[in-house]
Amino acid sequence: MLRSKIKTIILALSVSLVALSLISFPQESIDASTRGLNMWWEIVFPSLLPFFIVSEILIGFGVVRFIGVLLEPLMRPLFKVPGVGGFVLAMGMASGYPAGAKFTARLRQEKQISRIEAERLVSFSNCSNPLFIFGAVSVGFFNNAKIGIILALAHYLGNITVGLLMRFYGKNQEKEEIVTKKRKATLRSAFSVLHQTRMSEQRPLGKLLGDAVMSSIQTLLMIGGFIILFSVINKLLFHVGITVVLAKFLEVLLSIFQLSPELSIALFSGIFELTLGNQMASQVDTVTLMEKVIVASAILAFCGFSVQAQVASILAQTDIRFKPFFFARIIHAFIAALYAFIFWKVLYERLYQFEQPSNAIPVFLFGEGSLYYQLVEYGPIITIASLMIYIFILAKRIYLPNGH
What we know:
Blueprint: H1 2-24, H2 26-61, H3 63-79, H4 84-95, H5 99-109, H6 115-124, H7 130-141, H8 145-166, H9 171-174, H10 187-200, H11 205-240, H12 242-256, H13 264-272, H14 274-282, H15 289-302, H16 304-315, H17 323-352, H18 363-366, H19 371-399
């Protein structure tokens, strides 16, 4: 009872502090929310929407189960998750945060995986996409495309390492909730599962497409709200002075790993919002490039409270617990930082030590005509058009529920 009351007081004080800060710093709050909104409707929404819609259709038609049967011999021994986890991992790596959580939750709702398997899967299937690592971080912030190789290797190998470690999670509870039956990994058995799933799908194609669009846009609207909220909170914490105070504690952690304490504010900002944290880390001129890359790798792996809140909101729609995911993010942050240090010594210093530093920006990554450029240019148009379609479908379902 006492613990519950203390929690109530802390939550009330926190919300009150945010409200007072909004009143005290209105211009800064507007600037931060605008920054978050631009990021959402230019990059996040148009880049994630196709993956979300296609994944919903693939699950409905049984293609995911088809892939799952074929990948069972790989995913089960390595990660102790069904073969469908291979689909979630691949889609999560291609589309970025928080796609892995979205697809995992969808499979859990379909009862294709158990709760323990879902908690294992979500812990290593949420990744930053290559476009963000190479385009935004390495080229946009560090102005050095070669760093993207180090960050990508550290990030994705770190995720796989986390998956290998999380295979030991929930061993005692696993026997109580076996969902998937073991099948022979043959094309015949995979096709049989595909056909059975398609035949059991009662929704016509039009309804399936409509549901996929509705579900995807609702998730993306939620993601946009969290991006804007945490962008504002991060900015307010800095102006109130809390960032500087709490960053002192991170200085001790950085000193233990022989990293410069001057990166503490960037690291603290990255704990809340990874984009701002990486940008601030790249702008610290008094430390070595290696130290900045190590901290940036840790920030990418932890993914910030903003992304974690998005994941928590998605998982709340199921019985999947958030704590394993949070624990895995902490492990991933340390492992990714270690991998960044190793790859820096093995790859960067040996391969590029005789090259002159180059600030040239590759056109295919970040220049005019690149995917990133196209998203920034046409992303808002795609977002607005998609929202209009969403409103049309929603209005039709409300006022014409039977299609008449």
